[in-house]
Amino acid sequence: MYRKYFFPAVAFLVVFISVLLLGSSLNAMVPVFRSGDTIGADYRGSIATLDGFRQDGDGNYCADLKGRCETDDLTLIFISSAPDTIYVNGTKAVLDTYGSISGRLLVAQIPAEAFSYGKAGVWSIRLELHSASADSLSGLSLCSIDSAMTIVAVYNVLMPMIYGILLTISVYGFLLYLSKRDGTLLLFSLYTLCLFLWCFTPCLISHFGVKSSVLSFVHIYSFDFAVILGMVTCLSFCKLKMSGRRRWLDKWYGILALCLAFSLLENCLSARSGEVLLFLFYMAGCAVLVITCGKSDRKPWVALCGLSITQALRFIAIQYPHPSFYFDLMKLLRLLTLPYVIGCMIDINTSFARKFREAELLACELDKKVEERTKQLTEQQQIKTNLMTNIFHDLRTPLLIMRGCMDKLKNERRYDEEMVQILDERLAFITDMTEDLFATIKLEDKSLFMETEPVPLEPILRKIVDGCRIEADKKNIGIECRCKVKAVAWGDETWLSRAFQNLIANAVYYSKPDGGSVRVLMDTADGRILIEISDHGVGIAPEDKDKIFDRYYRVSGTKKHKSSGLGLSIAASVIAHHNGSIKVNSKVGEGTTFLVELPLWSIEQE
Ligand code: ADP
């Protein structure tokens, strides 16, 4: 049951532990000079952490350092906050931003005259940080002035880049949201906007020297809001919906209330406790992402890996109260949150790309279906046009003949036996034709009502065969009906008679004169009624076999003057309405057999 969560959990742990080990070892590579330490002659001014400060009676932080190295350009570098004044052996050191665009990197070169030299060229200094907060000791480092300036230059390049990335992601998300109203996207855009405001407001404050309470307010609240929005984005990946009384938490006012509640809580805590709370809070986020990767089809793997990296970095920040300068610089650049932000962005974009692809495939499929349907409709339209043309053509010929006969009768003003017979025949043809057309149209109607009753087939077949006997005699051919069983079908007697009438009449009509015979056989097998109508007639060419059941199809060369081309299509439709089937076997010049199968209702006993 829990197996599906195994891989996401392992992925989280692997990334988390790898980053933790890597970060810790990089942190440990930076040298640390503690109060009372002697700096060796080989020290060339690379970054080294200063630690071991103690507070004197006045609340100032102090540290003593000795050294043998060059003292020309030794510099102190502070991140985020710095003390008001720095004294080195009582001499004041000047604090400067050295062009740091946010003003949050502060550099103080130790004056050369402040060093006091003892025996064997060992110098010693006492650092006194007046009005310093514990925060200003974090990341406090010793380096050469050149290193400090390089760091400021690198910071000046990276800072606008990272803040720019956050702003771009946020604007991009909002623009995308305008086209596709997706909740996760909106939350993510607001989250990155809050992160940007949190990063950017201190720059405004320090760069323009604006001590605006509004900006400070924005700075504090944007951070708290970002924490909650980042978490809610995480929850929205798993489409977690609150139910019952907690439903309001899903609404915008619910999220706002959460943000405000978190702000109140966070502002009551110390900076360190706030960091611990944030870490634990986002550990819950990791659990949510692990569950989402395990069970939902929207798998935010990249967001999970991004959050693992972010959490590992946060853990290092909590674990080491005084991490290396580089680590503090990363914190200042807001690089800790960036992996999670980028992970979320990749996952959201991937899910959009997937949806887009699905929509594209669907559109392609629809296009194909529309094309097929249009083709079918065009074909149907063509068939209908042909049908109409044929009907008009077939009706026009007898009507013209009838018109001629009528004219002749009118002119001669006498009873002409021959003319009346022609008129009779043509009228009969038009009547049959309209009957067939009417039947065809009725059979097309899906809601056609057919009687449903037991239909004994033997009397029907015999009656039709007897009816055809005169025509068969005229052609000098035999006609017989053999029913092995008295099968009863279920359906409409009139329609069934009509179908068999068409088949048997065709068999007689297409039989060669003076030879062979028409046979109608009935039997049953496997709960089906089998009726075979065979003749020794002209046969049907293989290429016509599939088409003879089409409406109005007449094999070319058919000279049947009563032909409507609708007989077989009516027969096939009626059989289909009775859940039966019709097949044809034929050989040109030898004969044709129609095989009809109908469901067996019952067998009449003798
Ligand atoms: P028609 O009124 O022309 O007979 P049908 O739909 O009944 O129309 O038949 C369609 C075509 O099938 C006919 O034109 C004929 O060529 C062919 N056909 C039907 N029954 C037979 C048969 N028993 N033997 C040979 N050809 C047949």
Topology:
Layout: H1 6-29, E1 32-34, E2 38-39, E3 48-51, E4 54-55, E5 61-67, E6 74-79, E7 85-88, E8 91-93, E9 95-96, E10 105-109, E11 116-117, E12 123-130, H2 134-137, E13 141-144, H3 145-179, H4 183-207, H5 213-237, H6 252-268, H7 271-295, H8 301-319, H9 325-332, H10 338-412, H11 417-444, E14 453-456, H12 457-475, E15 478-483, E16 486-491, H13 493-509, E17 517-525, E18 528-535, H14 542-545, H15 567-577, E19 581-587, E20 591-599, E21 602-604
Parallel strand pairs: 1-3, 2-5, 15-17
Antiparallel strand pairs: 3-13, 4-5, 5-12, 6-10, 6-13, 7-8, 7-12, 9-10, 11-12, 14-16, 16-21, 17-18, 18-20, 19-20
Bound molecules: adenosine-5'-diphosphate.
Could you explain the architecture of this structure?
This protein is an alpha+beta fold and 606 residues long. Helix content is 55%, strand content 17%. It has 15 helices and 21 strands. α11 packs parallel to α15 and α13 (493-509) runs antiparallel to α15. It is rod-shaped, with a radius of gyration of 49 Å. It binds adenosine-5'-diphosphate. Residues 502, 506-507, 510, 535, 537-540, 548, 553-555, 558, 560, 563-569, 592 line the site of adenosine-5'-diphosphate (ADP).
